C-alpha cells in the first residue's frame, strides 16, 4: 500500500493506494481524490510551466505553459525543447509556440502578452 497527499483541492486528503487491489483508493473525501490516486500511480502527469527567450520585447523571457498536463517522464524532454526555443515579439497570451511538444499531445502556449518595444 502506498501513501500520498491529494493535491486536487485544498483539503489535502491522505490517500492510500493499494496496487494489489487494482489501485483501490481510500482516505479520499471526494471522487476526484480517488481519480487522482489512481492516475498518480498508473501514469503521473503535470502541467509544465517555464520561460523561453523573448527577442524584441520589453522583457528577456516569456512565461509559458503546456496546454494540458503531460506525462511526468516526458518533462525532461519537453524542457530540452523549451530551453532551445526563442520567440520574437509581439506574442499574445494563449498563442501556441510549439505544437505537440515532445510528442505529448500538448501544445506550449504563451501565458503573457508581450508587445514590441
Question: Overview of this structure, please?
Answer:
The protein has 2 helices and 10 strands. By secondary structure, the chain is an alpha+beta fold. Strands 8-5-6-10-9 form a 5-stranded mixed beta sheet.
Offer a concise description of the structure.
Helices cover 19% and strands 32% of the residues. It is α+β, with helices and mostly antiparallel strands and 117 residues long.
SSE order and pairing:
Blueprint: E1 2-5, E2 14-18, E3 24-26, H1 31-42, E4 45-46, E5 49-55, E6 61-66, E7 70-71, H2 75-84, E8 86-88, E9 96-98, E10 108-110
Parallel strand pairs: 5-8
Antiparallel strand pairs: 1-2, 2-3, 4-7, 5-6, 6-10, 9-10
Fraction of residues in H or I helices: 10-25%
Q: How many H/I helical runs? A: 2
Strand adjacency order, main sheet: 8-5-6-10-9
**Mean pLDDT, all residues:** 96
Q: Segments where pLDDT lies below 50 for 5+ residues?
A: none
Total beta strands:
10
Order of helices and strands: EEEHEEEEHEEE
Structural class: alpha+beta
Describe the largest sheet. 5 strands, mixed
Quaternary structure? single chain
What portion of the residues fall into strands of 2 or more residues?
25-35%
What is the terminal-to-terminal distance? 56 Å
Q: What characteristic shape results from the CA principal axes? A: elongated
What is the radius of gyration computed over CA atoms, rounded to a whole number of angstroms?
18 Å
